[in-house]
Amino acid sequence: MNSLVMNKPILLLIFSILVFGCKSESNMTGKYQTDSVNGNEFTFDMYRHTYSEKMSSGSVIKGRFKIFILSSKKKLIICNDMIMKRTSGDIKESSNVGDSTVVGVWDGYKNLGSTVFEVTSKNETLLFRKTYVNQLQKTESEGVLIKK
User: Fold this and answer.
1) Is 131 exposed, middle or buried (CB count within 10 Å of its CB: 0-12, 13-18, 19+)?
2) Which of 41, 54, 83, 88 is the Cys-Cys partner for 112 at CB 3.0 to 4.6 Å?
3) pLDDT tens-digit profile of 37-53?
């Protein structure tokens, strides 16, 4: 019990260093817009941490985002949306010789998670790569982030 009381200030100090030592503000200020992403355009307001997505159909989706700074040249913008994508595939069954044969098909939805924009600064140009939390290896689209 005594050692827990004595370790409490040390743990509090380590925790506060971790929390306050992580930089949460970005040097990106103002509003930024993506070039066309599969017919959609994203606009990010860095002051209010809000975004809007203008769909190719004309409808607009709005939400909030968080910025995580990975380095001075790389930042992550993580939107607070939840993307479900329609998927399908074959149902296979093993035969007695070890081959698999298709016995049916299935379709459904897959949770891709939140939309993530990986922003990289390169010679005064901001490049982005759009992906999803549950599929960080796959790039859905790439482009340039333009200051409005």
Assistant:
1) buried
2) 83
3) 677 899 999 999 999 99
